[in-house]
Write a structure and sequence with these properties.
By secondary structure, the chain is an alpha/beta fold. The chain has a single domain (about 5-15, about 25-195), classed as Rossmann fold, CATH 3.40.50. Helix content is about 50%, strand content about 15%. It starts with a helix and ends with a helix.
């Protein structure tokens, strides 16, 4: 990918972000990982009610770069190259953020770990899950627009296909089942950020 394309993509993603919180001395990267329909975006929205942070939602960001996304490997590569740079720039500027994407494979997550480590930012990893029958109901509801804040287009077939790609998270992380009360994990994350 040409450097000029990356610069343009990064500018477009940054321009699409909502108002950013004030910078802090020690920002945190909250990396949220989970299959489609497990409740990653819901978790991030609830966390943002408790802690000032920017939410970088890959589905939303993809549509900023590709208004009619095809979800090809090339498209994903270009999106994530820009995401790495945006995350690095925001953390470097003292902005705490939640990165909301499936983040299923450890090599992809490691790239974000290294950014946080290099910048001396805090890193919190949250694995979001829900029982398959709950996910199925949510993904069926997605097609009818039950959650107006849901930006994803992934359906049950995408969920089934992606399930085979889930890799174990090698770093310490929180696990939350969004079919249950998520408050205990939210409070642990808030406490970790506030330490």
């Amino acid at each position: 990918m040409k450097e000029s394309q990356l610069v343009e993509d990064v500018q477009r993603l940054k321009a699409g972000l909502a108002d950013l919180p004030d910078p802090v001395v020690k920002p945190f990267l909250i990396m949220v990982s989970g299959l489609p329909g497990t409740g990653k975006s819901y978790f991030c929205r609830r966390l943002a009610e408790k802690v000032p942070l920017a939410i970088l939602e890959s589905d939303d960001l993809r549509k900023l770069l590709f208004p009619r996304p095809a979800y090809t490997a090339e498209e994903s590569f270009r999106l994530f190259q820009a995401c790495y740079k945006v995350v690095e720039d925001l953390l470097g500027g003292g902005i705490t953020l939640a990165f909301d994407a499936t983040n299923l494979e450890e090599p992809h997550r490691e790239r974000f770990y290294h950014i946080a480590d290099r910048l001396g930012a805090g890193l919190i990893i949250v694995q979001v899950d829900a029982p398959p029958e709950v996910v199925y109901q949510r993904l069926e509801g997605r097609a009818t627009g039950v959650d107006l804040e849901d930006k994803s287009e992934a359906d049950w077939e995408v969920y089934r296909r992606m399930r085979a790609r889930v890799q174990r998270i090698h770093r310490n992380h929180f696990v939350v089942d969004t079919s249950e009360d998520i408050t205990p994990v939210l409070e642990k994350v808030v406490h970790t950020i506030g330490r």
